[in-house]
Amino acid sequence: MEFLIELINSFLPHFRTVVLAIVSLGFLIFIHELGHFYAAKRCGIKVNTFSIGFGPKIVGIQRGGTEYKISVFPFGGYVQMEGENPSEQTGAPGEFASASLGNRAFVVAAGPAINLLFGVLVYGAVFAIGLDRGSANLISTFTGRPLGKSEAVQVGWVADDGPGAAGGILPGDRLVSINGDSIRHWSTFHTRILTSPNKELELVVQRDGVHETLFVKPDAIPSVRGDIGVIRVSSGHTTIVSHIEKGSLAAQAGIQVGDIIESINGERLHSVPFFGSGVWRPSGDWIDEKYKALYNNINAHREALTLGIRRGDEVFTLQLPVEWQVIAAEVQEKSIAEEAGIQNGDMLLTLNGAFISKTTLDSQLMAAADQPVEIGLMRKGELKQVTLSNETQSSEVDPEAIILGLGWQATISGMQLAPETAPLPEYNLLTGFGKGVEATWLTFTAIGRTLQQLIGGEVSPKYLAGPVGITHMTGKFSRLGLSSLIFFVGFISINLAIVNLLPIPIADGGQLLFFALEKIRGKPIPRKAQEIVQQVTVVLLIAFFLYVTWFDGMSLIYELRN
After folding, report:
1. 3-state secondary structure 394-415
2. Contact 190, 177 (CB under 8 A)
3. In three state form, how does the secondary structure of 327-344 look?
């Protein structure tokens, strides 16, 4: 009982997400059925019912032989045509089965076509209205392509004892293909690794201008969805100087914002140095161990740290003494830290009057979850004092938030480092629509590859998401911003179009298959055969739905409890 109460309380903050997902999915199903309805009317097929929602009728009117109604459960809607069910067909004019083969195909294809067209329009709108970092990353992830110029996908850190290193992957390798599929975005590589536990994969990399073929076998790590593949390799990024504190040691040494840091003490950088709490935790993961090794390397040269710098076409080295400073990073919205007044980039100086120690700050902040603490900070040269207390916590705090909503990291001598990012492209209405068409095609092909891998047994269906998983993802993407949410809705619309076109007997694609067979045979498939195939398919689809929903539910419960 205690677990049930805890689960209910955990779920309450997600109520907005559930409503948002129901509205989004309901609308997509509604326009799908609207496509069928419009096409049927155009072809002279009698439509008995057009319902918004399912279940008992709330209100309805009769017009032109069609009942238009609103039903209790707002999960889309449905269109019921005369003689649509094989068991109800009489051969009378106006029945679905009495229409010509071409008209029937038009009616059936209209639903997926509307979903596909809507996806194109939504994608185009996102491009035309304007991208933010969240939507740009989301688009690249779902399409498998970067938005800007096609840059190489590079390896960053590689765990010394991981499957990646055992397979021959080295930091700085440029990924070319995996099992024959080209890699143009890190998500393509990551997804294939994740879904291939204990399966040997052929990986082509470019190293020193030469292509090399490697074979990597991901470890199988248990998860709520079964084993997932892990090779302990991270993506690589170019490191730039994103900010320099005025008068700092970095500024005095002549380092400028925009400089690319290519090496530290002669060691080539393929990942951005990050010195957060993981460096000082005794049980850090393998990436934290890499950061810790780099931190120790820097600390061993505190009097004269040597940086290899690229500035435009100029390459040179600079030396400067090391001075560690702690800054706020990734302050979460509506968190305790934000409500106390802390902002990203604030320099954290004192905690309860004592100078902050980066080695113990994490444990001190953990303790602050139970009692208020005073933080002294500096922002743009001005000293400020704030109080972190659970009493200031908003009821809308993200349940997935880190402790107090305050992420932090130690910076080197007054300079902040970040991954180099290309400026976001801008589009007008016309070019935005063109990019929408392109992104739709890329989404279409990416989904097609996934289906091919599912059919071939290369990927397990346990990684798929059903309504529960889609609802959860809707909430996550809505927190990234409006453009991310709109794009995700467009992505789901395109998915609905593709799934409905699959040759599954009760889906639109199955009906189109029956029509194709009818064209070849010169007569319809026997009614009894259609009924049997549809009944068997319904049972199989219900079983598949329960299978996917089980894994979605287990994943959601795991996240809520952790």
Report:
1. CCCCCCCCCHHHCEEEEEECCE
2. no
3. EEECCCCCCHHHHHCCCC
542 is written with which tokens? 């219900």
Kindly state the DSSP code that residue 422 receives in the 8-state scheme: P
What is the Cα–Cα distance from 551 to 465, expressed in whole angstroms? Answer: 8
Cα 124 to the chain's mean position, in Å?
A: 19
What are 213's two structure tokens? 């073929």
Say how far apart CA 198 and CA 313 lie, in whole Å: 45
Residue 83 has pLDDT above 70, yes or no: yes
Helix (H) / strand (E) containing 432: helix 429-455
Q: In 3-state terms, what secondary structure has residue 379?
A: strand
CA distance 213 to 179: 10
Nearest partner of 372 among 358, 397, 352, judged by Cα = 352
Tell me what the mean pLDDT of segment 402-407 comes to.
Answer: 69
State the Cα–Cα distance between residues 363 and 351, nearest whole angstrom. 12
pLDDT at 176 over 50: yes
Nearest Cα residue to 432 out of 141, 146, 125, 139: 125
This model's pTM is above 0.85: no
| Six token digits for residue 263 | 């090496």
CA distance 327 to 375: 12
Q: For the residues 380-390, what does the mean pLDDT come to?
A: 83
Cβ burial, residue 118 (10 Å; 0-12/13-18/19+) = buried
Token readout for 78 is 């449905």
Give CA–CA dist 63/530, Å, rounded.
32
Task: Find the angle CA(556)-CA(561)-CA(562) to the nearest 5 degrees.
Answer: 100
Strands 347-351 vs 314-320: parallel, antiparallel or unpaired: unpaired
pLDDT for residue 260 is more than 50: yes
DSSP letter string, 144-177: TS-SSS-PPEEEEEE-TTSHHHHTT--TTPEEEE
Query: Cβ neighbours of residue 102 under 8 Å, at least 6 residues apart?
Result: none
Tokens of 367: 């303790």
Q: What is the pLDDT of residue 160?
A: 93
* Cα 36 to Cα 49: distance, rounded to the nearest angstrom: 12
Structure tokens at 138: 């989301």
Neighbours of 551 (CB within 10 A): 22
Q: Token pair of 53, please?
A: 């929602």
DSSP state of 526: P
pLDDT at residue 225, as a whole number: 80
Q: How far apart are CA 112 and CA 84, in angstroms?
A: 18
Q: How many CB atoms lie within 10 A of CB 248?
A: 18
From the list 135, 116, 115, the residue with the least C-alpha distance to 127 is 135
**Lookup result for tokens 């059936």:** 108
Distance CA 188, CA 209 (A): 22
The rounded distance, in Å, linking the Cα atoms of 294 and 164 is 20
